[in-house]
Amino acid sequence: MSGPVRVAVLIGDEGRRETWLAALREAAPEFDIAPGERFTEPDEVTFAVVWRAAAGSLRRFRNLRAVLSLGAGVDAILRDPDLPPEVPVVRMVDEALTEGMREYVLAQVLRYHRAFPFYAAAQTARRWDPRPYPLARERRVGVMGLGVLGADVARHVAALGFDVKGWSRSPKRIAGVEAFAGRDTLYEFAGKVDILVCLLPLTPDTENILDARLFNALPRGAFLVNVARGEHLVESDLLAALASGQLAGATLDAFREEPLPPEHPFWSHPAITVTPHIASLTRVDSGARHLVAEMQRILAGKGSLHAADRNLGY
Ligand code: NDP
Ligand code: OXD
Question: Ligand 1, residues 169, 172, 174, 225: which to mutate, most atoms within 8 A of Cβ?
Answer without folding.
Answer: 169
